[in-house]
Amino acid sequence: MVRSRGRIDKRQAILDGAFTVFARQGYAQACVQEIANEAGVAKPTVYNHLTDKATLFRHAMQTAAQTALHERLAALEPLAEPGPDLRATLEEVGHRLLRLHTDDRSCALRRLLYSEITQFPDILDIVTESGPHRLTQAVADRLARLTLAGRLRASDPDRAAEQFMALLTGPLEARSRMGTRRIDDAELHEIARAAVGTFLASFGPADG
Amino acid sequence: MVRSRGRIDKRQAILDGAFTVFARQGYAQACVQEIANEAGVAKPTVYNHLTDKATLFRHAMQTAAQTALHERLAALEPLAEPGPDLRATLEEVGHRLLRLHTDDRSCALRRLLYSEITQFPDILDIVTESGPHRLTQAVADRLARLTLAGRLRASDPDRAAEQFMALLTGPLEARSRMGTRRIDDAELHEIARAAVGTFLASFGPADG
DNA sequence: AGTATTTTGAACTCATGAGTTCAACAGAGG
DNA sequence: CCTCTGTTGAACTCATGAGTTCAAAATACT
Fold it and tell me: What is the mean pLDDT of chain B?
């Protein structure tokens, strides 16, 4: 078969292919040869760029986690300049987050994190720090601003953010059967609506 | 070494030992010899009772899931006869659920479920049916009763139960860093209190 | 005691896959 | 054209672990 040879950026291809295969097979079941095939590269090239299967895994996870975090942070943007209808804005943001949360790579990332946390305790630091923690922080920042502006009553923004995220992702995990079942957009909207409803009942402005 | 021989109940010992080792190592990294050692049994005995490593895994997961479900259902009992202080009862139940949720075997069960769901899609049926689903159902039943008795306003008990569970377990997952960090009882109480607070703000009786 | 059943340990087969080696090879730069 | 660096494929070593075999021993049942 004819492949592009030479010193083109194989590294990124390898990391992408690695995550794809790890996501499909899990760490132990994934074999390096298959990763090489997926990346369109020879096996020694893989070892040339990343010494170990373990190193390969760590780097693949890190890249995937950073990508996921950036996507999520971008989804929060509407909260910076919320329109007159705060409920609608929150539902919009919630829906976007749910969409990202149901993404195949996101699900795979969570699965891999859960499964290999015993073998790779250090990955938790790499991923969590640029993962849910930072995201919840960012949400808390937004909620604090909104509280100062008198549009929310989140006296403890961190807890409010924590519960906002929980109300979104908790029901999702249960309904998607851990990412196994596909969930259509209508159901995502419904979950977001319900989450925002409960959230505002507790943290919304005094008049309703 | 001197071991108890004969046809005493080795099967249960094998399943227990299997879950212990799977919990420690994950499916792929666990080796049958080690499971046999953990169970105080010879390797061929394991294959005598459970044909495969895969079969062994399935049965171990099923047993663990059933145990976990029973514990959780028992924790709901106070909701059957709630005292005059509904908030206190909910917090009590919430705290008990959190305790069970942070249990080592519980965390291991969730981890294994997440990690092997690709290799063993059928385990999801075995476990989920006797897992979170049934639990949320049971909570919904209780909430429906309380609503009929005029002590709650959960017009949709299923959604209320879903959110109640989410408010409990969501913050827990984040804070425990996926079961990595230990969480003391005080923090569990605090999470339960916060969860019930938000829950009652949305579903509590009209007067507060 | 005597017979049937199960357990045991140890050694075995066999497949799989990580990581290496190496000679041939492609492309960039001089 | 020639060299240097990175890539390739194929064959290799080596460790690990699933599942089996078997004769000896322990236990249960009568």
Answer: 92
